[in-house]
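Re: the request from the purification team.
They wanted to know what the chain is likely to look like in 3D before they choose a buffer screen. I agreed to run a prediction and write the result into the notebook, where they can find it.
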Amino acid sequence: MRGRARLIPVLVLAVAVGWAGSAEAKPRLAGVFDLSGVPGQIARGPDGNIWVTISGSGESNTLAKITPGGNVTEYSPDDLVNPVGIGAGSDGNLWCTRNGGVVMVPPEDPDAAVAFDIAGISQPNRIIGGPQDKLWTASADQLVSFLPDDPNGFAAETIDGMNARGIAASGGKLWIADFGGQRIIRANTNGSVVKAYDVGGGPQGIARGPKKGAAYTNPGTDPQTVGRIEPGKNPRKTQTPMHDPFGINFAPDGNWWIANFAKDTLTILARDGKDRRFRRLPEGSGPRQITSGPNNTLWVSLEGSEQVARIKGVKKRRKGNN
């Protein structure tokens, strides 16, 4: 029996962040959209819509599509069971990780999703499009990659001592948040480690950055921290105590935006390490993951309130308007 799509009613809000010093529009909360379950990882699809995995849904839906205008449709494809990571492939499809493999999801027909077994994925995490037009994910001590037209021809390279979480691509290399090894790993596409940066705690999220670098979240340190790394330099850390920083995204405004689950806020981390807070998310919403969308938007999964938030106006400001 094929999965069934379900249209979700929309709740829209519009609240400015309220920064002073410029007449130019600032980032603002511009919509909070209900889901039938807990949102997981979130990504912009190849079709320009926002896609998010769902767990614990009373409707048994496992996937939601949110249009740029905020219309929500949920799906329950037969082959999409307990998805975790979600990302866009170079083939124009969505790809999700699951325990023991991946699932290809055509955005024009999600119910036609097809599952593929990959033995190297024992702990499903984030999946991204990256070097060589491949899909990339890190699971336990494995760096897994495959071409979208041949997932059965996957490669799984062992990185000793790694217990991976997030993954990002920057400068032709892979950056991996090694939760178990308390490291950030920069690796070649063949799995060889270029550099392992000891950061302590338990890093979770990682996002690309300028100068072939990356930034990461580390809720496991005391105090909790976020950090920036450029190749050849030591990690530079910014303290965010009691925030539980988790998901991270390099946004169109040239800053990293970070979901603070414990504070219902987002950290805006500049390249020089200065940080400020976006405080307009609903109380108790529990922001967990974050991605860029079309038209200078950011989209945030709200784990606590089972919603997704849209933020508009995330763009570089003109000089003189700081």
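For the purification team: Residues 9-24 have pLDDT under 50 and may be disordered.
Please add any questions underneath this entry.
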